[in-house]
Amino acid sequence: MIDLGISKLALIGAVALVVIGPEKLPRVARTVGTLLGKAQRYVADVKAEVNRSMELDELRKMKESVESAAKDVESSIQSGASDFEKSWQEATAGLEGSAEASSDNSDALNRIGTDLYPVYRHPKKNWRVKQGAMPQWYKARAGVRTRAQSGAARVARFRPRSNPTVR
């Protein structure tokens, strides 16, 4: 890029002072500064957009690799499960008569299991009711508002009353 040192900046400033004049120089300098700031922000926005698009591409590639790995694992599990089912069928082929007894035992165990574990209930009865953290007596003493009032009602409440008997 352009190499601007202090001596070059001083030379540019002197030439600008002579050409533009001392009355218009501050306004021109402000305008040039704002334009340079806008240009820098534009360049930073373009860089950020390019970085975002590059990161998005990387995330897409990572997503595709994870999906392919998941498909590979799923296919290996499916093939392993089918091999296991075949070996299980072969091992239990001679036990057809005992399969009915084992199913009766599993039903009994299921019924016992439900009796052992009670149904979950929330510990608080009225958990939907909001519990105040500050006691009511403290709110009354400290002057904390417990009820909402409109602005007109508040003005009417605290407006000094005129006393017609006092002159």
UniProtKB/TrEMBL annotation:
Species the sequence originates in: Hydrogenophaga bisanensis
Chief subcellular location: membrane
Subunit structure: The Tat system comprises two distinct complexes: a TatABC complex, containing multiple copies of TatA, TatB and TatC subunits, and a separate TatA complex, containing only TatA subunits. Substrates initially bind to the TatABC complex, which probably triggers association of the separate TatA complex to form the active translocon.
Pfam families documented for this protein: TatA_B_E
Keywords: Cell inner membrane, Cell membrane, Membrane, Protein transport, Translocation, Transmembrane, Transmembrane helix, Transport
Family classification: Belongs to the TatB family.
UniProt keyword annotation of Iron-sulfur present: no
Function: Part of the twin-arginine translocation (Tat) system that transports large folded proteins containing a characteristic twin-arginine motif in their signal peptide across membranes. Together with TatC, TatB is part of a receptor directly interacting with Tat signal peptides. TatB may form an oligomeric binding site that transiently accommodates folded Tat precursor proteins before their translocation.
PANTHER family in UniProt: SEC-INDEPENDENT PROTEIN TRANSLOCASE PROTEIN TATA, CHLOROPLASTIC
Region described as Disordered: spans on this chain: 70-107
Name of the featured protein: Sec-independent protein translocase protein TatB
UniProt subcellular location: Cell membrane; Membrane
Domain of life: Bacteria
Membrane topology, as annotated: Single-pass membrane protein
